[in-house]
Amino acid sequence: MNQNYIIPNQWSIIEEGFEAERVRSSESLFSLGNGAMGQRANFEENYTGETFQGSYIAGIYYPDKTRVGWWKNGYPEYFAKVLNAPNWIGIHVEINNEILDLATCKSIENYRRELNMKEGWYKRSFEAVMIDETRVKVESIRFLSLQIDELGAIRYSVTPLNREAKITFIPYIDAGIENEDTNWEEKFWEPIEILDDELCTSVTARTLKTRFEACTYMHNELAIDSIPINIDKTIHSKVDYIAHSYTHLVAVNSTFTLFKYGGYVTSLNHDRTTLREAAEKVVSIALEAGFDKLLAQQREAWDAIWQMADITIEGDVKAQQGIRFNIFQLNQTYLGKDDRLNIGPKGFTGEKYGGSTYWDTEAYCIPFYMATKDEKVARSLLKYRYNHLEKAIENAEKLGFTNGAALYPMVTMNGEECHNEWEITFEEIHRNGAISFAIFNYLRYTGDYSYIPEMGLEVMIGIARFWHQRASFSTFQNKYVILGVTGPNEYENNVNNNWYTNYIAQWCIQFAIEHIEKVKTGFPEDYSRIMGVTKLTENEIQQWIKVAENMYFPYSEKHGIFLQQDGFLDKPQITVSDLPKEQRPINQKWSWDRILRSPYIKQADVLQGFYFFEDHFSKDLLERHFDFYEPFTVHESSLSPCVHSIQAAILGRMEQAYTFYLRTSRLDLDDYNKEVHEGLHITSMAGTWMSIVEGFGGMRIKEDKMSFEPRIPMQWEAYSFKVNFRGVIVKLTVKHGKVKLLLEGNMPINVILNGEEITLHPNKELEC
Amino acid sequence: MNQNYIIPNQWSIIEEGFEAERVRSSESLFSLGNGAMGQRANFEENYTGETFQGSYIAGIYYPDKTRVGWWKNGYPEYFAKVLNAPNWIGIHVEINNEILDLATCKSIENYRRELNMKEGWYKRSFEAVMIDETRVKVESIRFLSLQIDELGAIRYSVTPLNREAKITFIPYIDAGIENEDTNWEEKFWEPIEILDDELCTSVTARTLKTRFEACTYMHNELAIDSIPINIDKTIHSKVDYIAHSYTHLVAVNSTFTLFKYGGYVTSLNHDRTTLREAAEKVVSIALEAGFDKLLAQQREAWDAIWQMADITIEGDVKAQQGIRFNIFQLNQTYLGKDDRLNIGPKGFTGEKYGGSTYWDTEAYCIPFYMATKDEKVARSLLKYRYNHLEKAIENAEKLGFTNGAALYPMVTMNGEECHNEWEITFEEIHRNGAISFAIFNYLRYTGDYSYIPEMGLEVMIGIARFWHQRASFSTFQNKYVILGVTGPNEYENNVNNNWYTNYIAQWCIQFAIEHIEKVKTGFPEDYSRIMGVTKLTENEIQQWIKVAENMYFPYSEKHGIFLQQDGFLDKPQITVSDLPKEQRPINQKWSWDRILRSPYIKQADVLQGFYFFEDHFSKDLLERHFDFYEPFTVHESSLSPCVHSIQAAILGRMEQAYTFYLRTSRLDLDDYNKEVHEGLHITSMAGTWMSIVEGFGGMRIKEDKMSFEPRIPMQWEAYSFKVNFRGVIVKLTVKHGKVKLLLEGNMPINVILNGEEITLHPNKELEC
């Protein structure tokens, strides 16, 4: 059974009633982020129950020791991991000297959390009865400012309900934090300096080894019934911790409020010597505006995002909540402002996957950012990889490749490989294909060719070189084979001739050759620069062609399908429907060997190839492959249901498409994979977006035009979305039987609707 | 180039001249052991150069945290690792207050090490010139007593050569040691008690978690020019350390000698409360005998071993030195006195492989111990696995097997799995086959059927059950397949249908069924007990038969050979001769994926099967497989050359057999695999023994008779060995053209020599 406690709502994520066993899950679901920092929905006040503390700063990581059974040549010495950052949200609260702690107080009533996605804030309220029978009402609202992305703000209020009470607020900063995933109780931050004056209280700390510096700061203000008051404070401090303590005797039904402004300024964005100064500046700006105005600005900033990115669904609140949750979290994670950053699979909501960049960005996230933001954002994501090309070449050299062959890391923070399982690090090489595919996708979508001569072609050449060298000739097959790989389906390791890998390898070579020619003709200066750098020869290209043209693809004549890999048919052909429920998810119930020798597929693999290269295959062929592979697919990767939803929609199987849509859009809200407590699946959220736009909306780029083939699930009355396409914005609305298209822009454009070309005129709704 | 500094000698391992870069290598090569404890050849005195300190106590281990990138279900929470034990050999030496340290003294001359294998002692001597120009001669001799296996003894002498000198001996015990392989600077011992009186100085310490207790003790005596003297001592002690300090002004050419008796008594063999008492007892016995008598006893004990185990080779000193080194080290490691112990791949010479038990014991070591010791020793090794049957069943259950299927661990100390790489732990399941094979081998060799009804059959049933469940039916092949395994050749992981694995799986089932029938008929009481325990049904046996009879074996019609695994022919068919020397050993030069997709074979795999089941295959077939696979084999496992040596001998390729023999017998002495500094390859040394006895001697058991087909390498004038066969001892001597057989025993027996049956009469040499 999936979890089912989130209350359906169009714009908010809501939890009602306190259940200790839901705390870790809700800490993930109610997370906040603003692209520069993030915060799990940990309580401000003390909590001695099960919790997973997480505060994160984008771009701040630590090179952890790699822990493996037996060392293998080529493993990275260290891998970057996201660090739990100093805690700026903490506020200890005492009621008549008793610590407020939801794990120990006498009772909790009217407990409620709300994550308001429309406006970008998170509120929690409850009534607690203390051991001494004092009943207090607590309300806390907080947000991470989109506008001032080094700033967060909290309004924390306590109201005694049955008697006057002595209430103490102890807001603090704590740099003595650990990582949840630290087996060895290591600390990663060393404190440098604590400073404290009327304007700003700060702890500056430095990460070990990477030596990032972060100044974590706070400024506190107090009010009684909304009227500011001054209260003398006591200061407690340790080497990595500072707290202010404010005590006040509060009358019954009177509300004592703490405003805490805080956050991080870091050496990523400031000179080390000016961190404190920068923090003071942020505090000054915050104080000038005040809490209410900052919150109003937050609403405006989110409103601007939703203007473009919102998808509406009528008649199905859960589906509506799901898609908005996905869009909200994607925007909380990455806004495209800083080309050193990327999109970690868990965003700012957990530590798993090290917070680093995976192929998810290229394979799943690029379309969302292309369609809902300025195309510069997608270009910035592509440039991230261009900037890492040299390290990708070094990475390939470590594995024995030569001559500028590039292997992009499976997981990275700064271009270096950050993962150390041989079957992934060394063998899950299809990731390289996604890097080229994203360039293709960007070009197709934006029409911006300039990226290719400027940067993309060098990347494409490095990748083509890798595939050329990685394939080997099989005299037995009289073909080129690619041995020893892990495909997108990570439930198979070290297989030979994974169809997806072989296919994308062939395509990468062909794609590179196509654009070498185009750049040669169209951009001779760039061409000669690139040839100078890469030292590519005609002879080498001929070698590439030999490999691409003679690539082997495993195929079953009997089934008329491409085989996921050599030997797939030797597996017991038992489908998921034969798998007892209590054995799922198999990745939590089965040993690894059992998973590997089963036919079960973690995520789209052959079908991933059909998704990327849709135009290469007929609908019949898609149907045959879908029908063969889907029944073996356990969808235990968050990246699986979205691809299946899109393909089911293409095949006109709307019920199935809808089921997969719910699974992808509510994956975390309903915790399909029993792991939401570890954090959210951020990158797959872009897949959810694709399920609607590409799946139901049938949006494609065909011959430089945008095309739609809209379909609507039975369960919905209507849906709508906007896409930003080459400087214009097109809005599609679908109600049963009717499709509306609206163009925002100045010039008419032609789009293709259900195969027919039509002209859209600016700001004039076209109904068909 | 292999290393080449060990001076050839019939009976000793000798090094001359000090080279700092050889220290770690020699520390391995000159190691001492007595089956109960072991000691790398670390210097007694201080040494600040590169060194790998290692003292080991048999059976004392620690459950270390398993370190893996990402956790996989089924991994052990902890794995046993051998522990570096407290140091009892240490003697700081000061010459005129200057610390004697070979890394810092002014010069070193006449440096010599000798490991005397005939008599079981290790001697080191040198002259050192100190910074103050004092020249001293140092001689140290030490041994670990075979007779009193808790006792070691050192005689350490210093003679000033050019002036009188104030000499200080500071013998100490140090329990504050770490493991070489400890990345995290963890300590594994906690000190409990230090006691010090005239008879005995001791540090008792306890291992963390496993809570073994070891009392490490010493007693020191002094002499000038062999005349005992008393010198007042100073005592230094810390919580885990105690030292005595003796200073004496020594005249030029006078010799100051320290006798240090020390070692361990442990809670494995004594009640915890009596450890100190036990140590005192050992010291008393030692003192009563004195150093010289102890050394004489050591000679006698080794003489008794050599009486039976020696192999002589005439005309080839290096070959002679090699085989004796192998026999010596095997006896230092395991003497068969304690059925809780087994033979770790590195014995007492290093930490790699955790000091635990591998399939090496069953596949390689059993024959040596059967032939050179009482058959009880081999039975004890078999019983070790019987005692672990329950844990092997639990281990299989963790991986999803049921109904008493047993999977023996890949690596173990106490029956629990101690390794955590999925491709090994979960997939290198052929190890299970070796456990059954060893029972077969024991039965064949000793004729002692009693082991089967008493213990062996239960093991065989658990193993047959495992294979039955582990195979799956391929509708594609219409056969049973075994997917996702790692064969003996660990340079292939997660392959399908490894021929060796499938073959031994089939054999294990057939072997079990054969003996279920025999026990049913011959031992009805045991039979009904076993059926009661195992709940085996006729129906289940029928299921086993179905799997065994329909097992799939990969085969190439074109080459007329069994394929190592599915898809082997897709690999680039490039032989080792095409591999540049600087890229070897590939396990140190190549990344793991590159190794995996290469055709290179770490060790005999298909050929291992041909070795085990020699009688199942014709010589022609062997030849074809040898010629196909050997050229791909890099022999980077110590277990590889011996099998190839035997098979080359069978094929009459004496030059090749000889080359492989040298490689196996001098693997460590000449450091073929560039890793001797990590310790010696103990288990493969039994393979070296097989190379001579089974390879050159052609010794086999055929229809309950011993048979010989002797061959002699060109390079040798003669060789001889003895084997203990069912209560009699047969000695074979081969000189060019002549074979002599000598029977030690009371009754005549028939043996087969080159296919002809002949009768041997007691103590009468037969020459052919």
UniProtKB/TrEMBL annotation, chains A, B:
Residues 14-267 form the Glycoside hydrolase family 65 N-terminal domain. Pfam families: Glyco_hydro_65C, Glyco_hydro_65m, Glyco_hydro_65N. Residues 699-760 form the Glycoside hydrolase family 65 C-terminal domain. One of its GO terms (molecular function) is carbohydrate binding. Substrate binds at residues 359-360, 602-603. Residues 324-690 form the Glycoside hydrolase family 65 central catalytic domain. It comes from the Bacteria. GO terms for biological process: carbohydrate metabolic process. InterPro entries: 6-hairpin_glycosidase_sf, 6hp_glycosidase-like_sf, Gal_mutarotase_sf_dom, GH65_N, Glyco_hydro_65_C, Glyco_hydro_65_M, Glyco_hydro_65_N, Malt_Pase/Glycosyl_Hdrlase. The active site is at 490 (proton donor). Gene3D superfamilies: 1.50.10.10, Glycoside hydrolase, family 65, N-terminal domain, Maltose phosphorylase, domain 3. Belongs to the glycosyl hydrolase 65 family. This is Maltose phosphorylase. It comes from Imtechella halotolerans K1. The lineage of its organism: Bacteria, Pseudomonadati, Bacteroidota, Flavobacteriia, Flavobacteriales.
